[in-house]
Amino acid sequence: MYKRLKSFFICLTFIFYVVPTLAQHTDSLIKSLSINAAIHHGLYFSGNVKSDFVMDSRPFLGEIDISLQTGGQKIWQQLNGYPVIGLGILFGKSGGDKYIGNVGALVPFINFPLYKSHAFKMNFKFGLGAGWVQKPFDAQTNYKDFVIGSHLNACINLQVLSGVQIEKNTCLHIGFSFTHFSNGSVKLPNLGLNIPALSAGAEYSFTRQPKIKRPVPPLKKKWHYYLFTSAAVKQSTPLESPLRLVNLMSFEILRDFSHTGRYGAGFNLTYDRALSSEVPNSPTFAFDESKLKLEASIYGAYEYVIGDLSIPLQLGIYLYNNYRFSEIYENIGIKYRFNSHWIAAVLLKAHLGNGDFIQWGVGYKF
Fold first, then answer.
1. What pLDDT is attached to residue 45?
2. Which of 10, 17, 234, 297 could form a disulfide with 316 if both were Cys (CB 3.0 to 4.6 A apart)?
3. What HEC string does 126-147 produce?
4. CA distance 248 to 229
């Protein structure tokens, strides 16, 4: 613990003294940036026997990120309260030193203001990027790790932070974070690594940029109709099975309720070639794949709009599924609008936090 705190105070020294000195010799673009250093002391909640077995310590992550304060050059920035956008590096202990090892991630993020006064602020930070796990499952050398099956994973990082301004350009913050590593069942096992944590850190902003304020156009509450087609690849049980293709088709209806939010519902059809069920009372591991591998479901949807980018959150209920092991599922991801009709989407599907697959798709707005 002493070594971790020592490293953190070294980062604080860098922010308080070295960074301001460098800022005096940089151009205006660099001066518009901020740099942040933080630590995340992980908590572990028992819930899955397989996860409990490999967790032998507290997770502990360090974070360094660089960010840019938006100034209202585009209307979506003003509508979202002038959020901060940036790139962060996470690194440290997974909490399973023997079987999982260290973890790291490179995470682009956007940081939304929830409340701000002269000396106090509260933010919500959402990041989605690529993660790395040191010791994934290996049938020969690491067969007890049933949490993560690959070195490369997707990483989702969520943070709620409260900050106090202690100097003109320096802020200390504390809060909570949640970090999730999963490969979307591209390689089993894939229970997923979840790290809730208490967070603390410091941020230095080179300058405070003036914010542009424009007249906000009146909201036109419209209905939006979308058709999406997506695909994914995943492994099925037993372990080390071949990758199988998953095809998805969904129809979605959303309605604006604010400049930054939409809600609605959708209908989804999935043909998942990786579905199977274990044969009960079999003398060996045997799996039945004889039933139709079609899934039909409906879902409620919320979408947070950030200009041409949006963050969809979906909660679905199965209407038809011959291999059902959960009644509900969740989707979270990003969508990007290329023009008035075409949209690209990447979504992570999970069952109660257990990642199922990562789907890549394209959509058309009618």
1. 61
2. 297
3. EEEEEEEECCCCECCCECCCCC
4. 6
DSSP string, 74-139: SHHHHHTTS-EEEEEEEEEE-S-TTTT-EEEEEEEEEEEEEEE-SSEEEEEEEEEEEEEESS--BT
Does 223-365 match 2-205 at the fold level?
yes
Does the bond joining 218 to the residue before it have cis omega, within 30 degrees of 0? no
Predicted pLDDT of residue 151: 95
- Class at the top of the CATH hierarchy for domain 223-365: mainly beta
The answer to whether 51 touches 223, Cβ cutoff 8 Å, is: no
pTM confidence score: 0.84
Per run of 10 residues, the mean pLDDT along the chain (length 366 residues) is 48 46 50 88 70 84 93 90 94 92 96 90 94 92 87 95 90 95 88 91 82 86 96 85 93 96 97 88 79 96 94 96 90 94 94 87 96
What residues contact 181, with CB distance under 8 A and at least 6 apart? 103, 105, 131, 133, 148, 153, 154, 155, 192, 193, 195
State which amino acid sits at residue 92: G
- Domain limits, the chain: 2-205, 223-365
What is the rounded CA–CA span in Å between residue 362 and residue 229?
Answer: 6
The pLDDT score that the predictor gives to residue 30 is 67
Q: What are the residues facing 361 on neighbouring strands?
A: 230, 345
Q: Which fold has domain 2-205?
A: Porin (2.40.160)
Q: Which amino acid type is present at position 67?
A: S
